[in-house]
Design a protein that fits this description.
By secondary structure, the protein is of the alpha/beta class. Helices cover 35% and strands 28% of the residues. The protein has nine helices and 15 strands. The chain has helices at residues 15-24, 38-48, 56-59, 77-86, 101-114, 128-138, 165-181, 267-280, 289-308; strands at 4-9, 28-34, 51-53, 67-70, 90-93, 118-120, 145-155, 187-193, 203-209, 215-221, 223-235, 238-243, 248-253, 257-258, 312-313. It has a nine-stranded mixed sheet with strand order 14-13-12-11-7-10-9-8-15. It starts with a strand and ends with a strand. The chain binds nicotinamide-adenine-dinucleotide.
Amino acid sequence: MKKLGTAVVGTGFWGKNHARVYGELESTELVAVCDVNRERAKAVADQFGVKAYTSSSRMLKNEEIEAVSVCTWSTKLAKEALKALKAGRNVLVEKPMATHTKQAERLLDIAESNGLHLTVGFLMRFIPGLRHIREAVENKKIGELVCATAKRVSQWPERIGDVGVVKDTAIHDIDVVRFISGEDPMSVYAKTGSMRHRKFEDYAQIMLTFEDGKSAFIESNWITPYKTRILTVTGSEAIMRLDYITQELWIEDAKENLQPRFPWQEPLKLELQHFADCILEKKKPVITGVDGLKALKIAEAALRSSAKNKVVKLK
Ligand SMILES: NC(=O)c1ccc[n+]([C@@H]2O[C@H](COP(=O)([O-])OP(=O)(O)OC[C@H]3O[C@@H](n4cnc5c(N)ncnc54)[C@H](O)[C@@H]3O)[C@@H](O)[C@H]2O)c1
């Protein structure tokens, strides 16, 4: 079987994992890595026995590369994704995809006109328990969806200095609530602020409203001494709770508490396997560029809402 030739741009904390997984999957082969930091590029390239580059333009001349993961600093994602798309490569761009919606729209246009796959690293969607929640909501196993509450808090990972907690962290949950409800929110109201971060917000409380009175509340911050990543989904008949870290899922109704068990799986492996399968089998990815763009628009609206202390209508 021919393996899909892959490359990673940005080999920091997260890009290293993309490189490792491309090396581990049966259907992909890591061809090259690139980082503006020469030592980082070389260390990862040496670890996986591939070529290191400090310029992605030079790396993209290698015709063995068919797909690229873009894992740079958030403010460089769109530029690097655009380069790869213009060079005719399929792209998985990490969240938040771009720093502004205009850049994200450009990525969508180029991907579409070049007939390329463009997907965004919304990793949560590959956690088996979240898929179970989506199915339960869709099939009304918890009755009517009432609300979702997401908590994603920890200390500030200081390497993240170019975007705030909304575009870096809350954006995961913005995508999650769109995914489980199968709808786009109608409005957003948010409160954000900064305790330690000098340039950007490091805490955010975001309320999203959906049709028929459904709502979601997202709490994200970098000021909590411990790490919590929990989603609670309330339906008219039952409640589901997912711990993203342990991947444990609880379902509670008036009669019983259930804890369906799924074998723990590495979400990044599932994500990159899906990306490769979609390219090799010419299938549409579960997360499209449109999902990335919509999440970014909501994140921007949340920041505007907080700045103006007003509800922002999204539809
Ligand atoms: N989906 C997830 O769960 C998840 C988890 C962690 C990080 N991320 C995302 O991955 C990205 C990277 O995060 P990180 O924590 O690895 O950051 P990091 O600072 O550890 O690594 C970023 C790397 O990109 C390199 N870089 C910057 N601009 C570049 C360019 N133009 N070309 C080549 N290399 C460049 C830097 O030198 C650095 O090594 C961010 O966008 C972040 O939001 C996603």
